C-alpha cells in the first residue's frame, strides 16, 4: 500500500471514528431525555456531561449548557471566548446556549474544530430546544387539565352546595326561632339559659356557613359599573375597621391615586377585599401590621393584601382555593372564603396569587383588567 493510500485510509478511519463518537453522543442524549422521571435540570446536566466524549481531545474538552440563566457544566469553567457556541432556540426565542471548548489547554494548543463537530453542536442545541419545548408543553397541558378538573369539581360542588343549602336553611331557621322563644321564658334556670345561648350561637354559625354555601353555589355573573377601586377599599373599612382595632391590627394603606376606574361589580369586589382582610386579621392573633396596596401594572390594576401573621405551610398552599379547605379552627371558618374570592376574581377575568412563609406572614395579590367588556351593560354610575 503506497503512502497516498495509507493517508486516505487513515483519514477515512478517523472520520469514521469521529462519526461513531457523534452518533454515540446523540444516542446518549436521547437516552437521557427519554427518562420519564428525569427533571429538566438533570437532563441538561446529562447533556453537558455527554458532549465532551464526541470531541477530538475528549479528555481536555469541557461543555456548558445554559438555559434561562441556569448553567450546567461537565468540567472546568469554559471562558466565553474559548470554544464553539450554539444558541438554544425554543419557539423562536433564544433561551440559552450550548458551548464546547478546551479550557485546560493553552490557546496555542487548542485543536481546530472539525466541521462535523460544528454540525454536532448545532444538532445538540436543536435537540435541547426541542426537549425544553416538549417539557414546557407537557407542563402547560397538565396545568390546563388540572384547571379543567378544578372547574368541573367546583361546578359539581356548587350544584351539591345549592341543594344542601336549600334543604338546611329552613330547619335551621326553625331551630333558631324556637331557641330565641325559649330564651324569653321567665324564670328560666341559668344552666338552661346558657344551653339555649349555645344553641343560638351554633345555629347562627351554621346559618353563616349556609350563607357562604349559597353565595358559592350562585356563581352570579358580575353586574358591571364603573368602580373607583381606592374609594371602594376606603368605604369597606367600615365593615372591618373596628375588628382590626379590637385585634390590635394596624392598617397601612398604600393606595395609588392614579389608578383608573375599572368596569366591575362593586358588591363582589367589596366581598373580595373584605374576605382577604378578615383572613389577614384572623392570621394575626397577636396583632401586627396589615398592608393594603393598590397600583397599576400595564393594563391591570393590582391589589396587595399583606399581613404579618402566622403564615401557611408550603404543602398547604396548592389547596387554599379548594372549597371547604381551611387552616382555621372548626368554629372559625367554613373553608369557602377563598373559593368565593377566587370565583369572583376569575369571573372578572382577573388573576389571584398567594405567597406565604410560616411565622412571617402572607401576601395575596389580585390583578383585575382595566378594560373589560361589561357583562350586563355598563352603567355610568360610579361605585
Task: Provide an overview of this structure.
- The protein is an alpha+beta fold.
- It folds into two domains: 3-141, GAF domain (Beta-Lactamase); 222-382, Histidine kinase-like ATPase, C-terminal domain (Heat Shock Protein 90, 2-Layer Sandwich).
- It has seven helices and twelve strands.
- It has helices spanning 3-33, 40-50, 115-183, 190-218, 229-246, 266-282, 337-347; strands at residues 62-67, 70-73, 84-90, 93-101, 225-227, 249-255, 262-264, 288-297, 300-306, 351-357, 361-369, 379-382.
- The strands form three sheets. Strands 6-8-9-11-10 form a five-stranded mixed beta sheet, covered by helices on one side. Strands 2-1-4-3 form a four-stranded antiparallel beta sheet, with helices on one face. It has a three-stranded mixed beta sheet with strand order 7-5-12.
- The longest helix has 69 residues, at 115-183.
- The protein starts with a helix and ends with a strand.
- The model is unreliable at 376-380 (pLDDT under 50).
Amino acid at each position: 500500500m503506497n503512502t497516498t493510500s495509507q493517508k486516505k485510509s487513515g483519514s477515512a478511519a478517523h472520520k469514521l471514528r469521529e462519526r461513531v463518537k457523534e452518533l454515540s453522543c446523540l444516542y446518549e442524549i436521547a437516552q437521557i431525555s427519554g427518562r420519564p422521571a428525569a427533571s429538566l435540570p438533570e437532563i441538561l446536566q446529562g447533556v453537558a456531561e455527554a458532549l465532551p466524549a464526541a470531541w477530538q481531545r475528549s479528555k481536555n474538552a469541557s461543555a456548558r449548557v445554559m438555559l434561562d440563566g441556569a448553567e450546567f457544566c461537565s468540567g472546568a469553567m469554559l471562558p466565553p471566548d474559548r470554544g464553539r457556541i450554539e444558541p438554544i432556540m425554543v419557539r423562536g426565542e433564544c433561551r440559552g446556549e450550548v458551548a464546547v471548548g478546551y479550557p485546560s489547554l493553552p490557546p496555542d494548543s487548542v485543536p481546530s474544530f472539525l466541521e462535523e463537530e460544528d454540525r454536532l453542536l448545532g444538532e445538540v442545541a436543536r435537540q435541547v430546544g426541542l426537549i425544553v419545548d416538549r417539557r414546557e408543553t407537557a407542563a402547560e397541558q397538565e396545568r390546563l387539565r388540572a384547571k379543567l378538573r378544578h372547574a368541573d369539581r367546583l361546578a359539581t360542588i356548587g350544584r351539591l352546595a345549592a341543594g344542601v343549602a336549600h334543604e338546611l336553611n329552613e330547619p335551621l331557621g326553625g331551630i333558631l326561632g324556637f331557641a330565641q322563644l325559649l330564651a324569653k321564658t321567665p324564670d328560666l334556670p341559668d344552666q338552661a339559659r346558657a344551653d339555649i345561648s349555645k344553641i343560638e350561637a351554633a345555629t347562627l354559625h351554621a346559618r353563616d356557613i349556609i350563607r357562604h354555601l349559597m353565595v358559592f353555589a350562585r356563581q352570579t355573573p358580575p353586574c358591571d359599573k364603573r368602580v373607583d377601586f381606592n374609594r371602594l377599599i376606603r368605604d369597606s373599612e367600615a365593615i372591618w375597621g373596628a375588628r382590626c382595632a379590637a385585634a390590635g391590627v394596624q392598617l397601612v394603606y398604600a393606595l395609588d391615586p392614579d389608578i383608573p376606574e375599572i368596569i366591575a361589580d362593586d358588591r363582589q369586589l367589596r366581598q373580595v377585599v373584605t374576605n382577604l382582610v378578615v383572613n389577614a386579621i384572623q392570621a394575626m392573633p397577636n396583632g401586627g401590621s396589615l398592608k393594603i396596596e393598590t397600583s397599576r401594572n400595564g393594563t391591570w390594576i393590582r391589589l396587595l393584601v399583606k399581613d404579618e401573621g402566622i403564615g401557611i405551610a408550603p404543602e398547604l398552599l396548592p389547596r387554599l382555593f379548594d372549597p371547604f379547605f381551611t387552616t382555621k379552627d372548626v368554629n372559625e371558618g367554613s373553608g369557602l372564603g377563598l373559593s368565593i374570592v377566587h370565583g369572583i376574581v376569575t369571573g372578572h377575568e382577573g388573576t389571584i396569587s398567594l405567597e406565604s412563609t410560616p411565622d412571617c406572614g402572607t401576601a395575596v395579590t389580585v390583578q383585575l383588567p382595566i378594560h373589560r367588556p361589561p357583562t350586563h351593560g355598563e352603567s355610568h354610575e360610579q361605585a
